[in-house]
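hey can u check if this looks right to u? its 292 residues, i copy pasted from the old doc so theres a chance i mangled smth
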Amino acid sequence: MALSYSLREGLAGFRRAKFAVIASTMTMTVALVLIGLFGLLNFEAQRVADLLRQRVGEVELFLQDVEDPVAEALSQRAAAMPGVIETEYISREEAQRIFREEFGEGAEVFFDELFLPASIRVRVDPDYATPDSLARMVEQMSRWNRVDEVVFNQPLLVKVQENLRLLTLAGLALGVVVLLAAIFLVANTIRLTIYARRLLIRTMKLVGATDPFIRQPFLFEGILQGVIAGLTSGLAVWGLYRLLVRYYPELAVPGGWLGPVLVVGLLGMGVLLGWLGSYAAVRRFIKSISLH
């Protein structure tokens, strides 16, 4: 009985204070859109950071004059090492072709001689691509037979790590600010909707209604506002993401799971914000109402 009453009253609250409810829902929607856009930006930045770490963290083994079977065996040995996700054997002929393509004009001087050594290019997992991990890997590979030299761009990798750490800290700080601002806006706007019905709350207290009984309709109303705001913001952010992908296909996430995750995540966050904002506002307001 109490549950059905709370649901009816929660829905009725939309009719009694339309302007306040619309303002609260719109405020929550804007806050969730900001949170969703920040989360999407942070996700794409993390993807770019992983790709950058993987490319900068490539290790290349330059081989002595070896036959292809020996080179393939070394490539398989490198592939079996922890953190390695892919190896690529580059023969002397392939190295010569790559050099001609990248050197451009004037490369014909080297057409008649295979002067570049064969090599094995090792790509590591982004989580493993740290200066310390790669330094240990290079030290181990340098002791292998038939390996002439092992190189990786350590100074650039250190610089990338430092910049990524700085960006991560700045992103976390900005995310906390956005989240706190969203909670503040939602709580204050919901407090206005409750203030608009202060006489109703006072009347209910006068006839003996308990605080939990008075609070429940407002909680359901806040949750319903959160559902509407969560769905609206989720669809808006997803639509913006699809628009960006149309112009920048490289931003697309394989599998198409990002859109549903955005909608469900913002829907859940909307419900949480609506409940927390309603609970905090109505709890404080009920206690402040005097019956005299």
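The CA atoms of residues 60 and 151 lie 6 Å apart.
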